[in-house]
Amino acid sequence: MDKQAVLRHLEERAADFYVLSDKIWDNAEIRFEENQSAADYAAFLETEGFEVTRGLAGLKTAFRGQWGSGKPVIGFLGEYDALPGLSQKAGTPVKEPLVSGGNGHGCGHNLLGVGALMGAVGLKQYLETEGKPGTVVFFGCPAEEGGSGKTFMARENCFDGLDAALSWHPDFRNMMPPGPVLANNAVRYSFTGKASHAAAAPEAGRSALDALELMNIGVQFLREHIPSTARIHYAITDTGGNSPNIVQAHASALYQMRAPYTPELADLYERVNRIAQGAALMTDTQVEIKFLKGTSNTVLIPALDEVMYRNMCAIPNPVKEAQDLDFARDIVRTQTQEMPESLFELSPKPWNRAGNIPLPGSSDTGDVSWVCPLSQCGTSTWPVGTAAHSWQAVACGKSDFAHRGMLYAGQIIAATAIDLCENPDILETAWKQHREKTGGNPYHCPIPPEITPAELEAEMT
Fold first, then answer.
1. pLDDT bracket for residue 461 (50, 70, 90)
2. Residues 413/122, Cβ–Cβ less than 8 Å
3. Distance CA 273, CA 282 (A)
4. Which residues, 6 or more positions from 370, have their beta carbon under 8 angstroms from its beta carbon?
């Protein structure tokens, strides 16, 4: 069986994978709650002959499915968590929730996980037919959205022993990442003061809310003096009560900070901490700084990305055969008044080999990339201009063009994995580049050891 035969095999079996992807879309389970989704994956893997191990790294919905033996050991990263508040009917170009306030797959993880699974099944089919050595490992990675599932898994050495890891992400383009995703910290700042009657004895009070507001103002002034690629976001989660005539004795905010590289983020984190401490000093209050979670920036490996990009360009994109282009056109109209020349960007975007244009988001795939060489692509599963984390993305999740974009991704990943098995020199070069990019430093998990998945789940709920 050659590579082309594997690609044909995946296309012939595409309907099986479409059914699984749609089932994950229907369940739409958010971080740490992906019980049915994880069970559906495990059942599928066992049917395919994989040995499944559940409950990795203290995450009840994390698992691995393994087949084969020997080198190379290729990992495939699957995700399946949805987003809260994005419930939406499929195939409807009008905002119309299935369940008011319910969950929805606004980041396409129903497609992401199954596309990665297709890559794993394709490599298994190749090695089994050819009688060649190699180990195929599919990782079920929960809680990417706000839960740092892969970071916890990396902390517990789940990805150790891999020669390479492969994944992808739904998009409206076919592309390799032009740069790293941002390192990301989530931190809770809780201020404690002293309550008093605001009219009768204001001098006796110490306002935690004043402290929090001063912190937020200080951070606003900080924004001018940080790299343009860094980001600081916050949400006030506790205002200290609803009575304006009581000096607020408690107040808190949840902050997220991002930067292109982990050392830059560490510096930004300390600067924000000092602002919080200064706000507490100014108001004679106390501040508790609780680090909740973090993800690392991605380490880009040109040797792997070159192989994946070559396969992306060589494999015909099946999205052009989509049957529901009228629906795609209606989705585009909800986002722009000017209809683009093409509903989909089918030609792969030129690859920026320098890898120096940071992407604005963050992902726990970055932590995997610090453990072993990683490559991932994006393929068009949504019409041009569609944003992730939108009801439009949810509405497209079961469409013909989403299915075919997922098939395209699965074929790219399978073909890339086959190339790595057939050309050991690629992996040798990839590891050399990995050592250069990381400075030879071992992976350091950004989440402190005292933070457990259960504690984070409680804090982020």
1. low
2. yes
3. 14
4. 154, 296, 299, 438, 443, 444
pLDDT tens digit sequence for 360-410: 889 999 999 999 999 999 999 999 999 999 999 999 999 999 999 999 999
Q: Encoding tokens for residue 18?
A: 């479409």
> Which amino acid type is present at position 439?
G
b/e per residue 358-386 (b: at least 16 CB within 10 A)? bbeebbbbbbbbbbbbbbbbbbbbbbbbb
* Domains present along the chain, CATH in parentheses: 3-181+298-438 (3.40.630.10), 183-295 (3.30.70.360)
**Structure confidence at residue 292 (pLDDT):** 93
DSSP string for 385-444? TPPSSSHHHHHTTTSHHHHHHHHHHHHHHHHHHHHHHH-HHHHHHHHHHHHHHHTTPPP-
Computed from CA positions of residues 201, 206, 208, 210, in that sequence, does the dihedral angle turn out positive or negative? positive
Cα–Cα distance between 174 and 17 in angstroms, integer?
20
Contact 431, 72 (CB under 8 A): no
For residues 30 and 105, give the distance between their C-alpha atoms in angstroms, rounded to a whole number: 9
pLDDT value of position 325: 86
Question: Alpha carbon of 276 to those of 22, 210, 219: distances in Å?
Answer: 45, 12, 9
pTM of the full structure: 0.94
Judge whether 211 and 285 are in contact, CB under 8 Å.
yes
Kind of pairing between the strands at 134-141 and 73-79: parallel
| Distance separating alpha carbons of residues 333 and 321, to the nearest angstrom | 21
Quote the strand ranges of 199-298, DSSP E. 231-238, 250-259, 286-295
Distance CA 377, CA 307 (A): 11
Q: Determine the Cα–Cα distance for residues 112 and 365; give it in Å rounded to an integer.
A: 13
Question: DSSP character for 351?
Answer: P
CA–CA separation, 307 and 312 (whole Å):
9
Strands (E), 245-371: 250-259, 286-295
In tens, the pLDDT along 156-198 reads 999 999 999 999 999 999 999 999 999 999 999 999 999 999 9
How far from chain centre, in Å, is Cα 265?
Answer: 18
Phi, psi of 459 (to 5 degrees): -70, -35
Distance, C-alpha 442 to centroid of its chain: 22
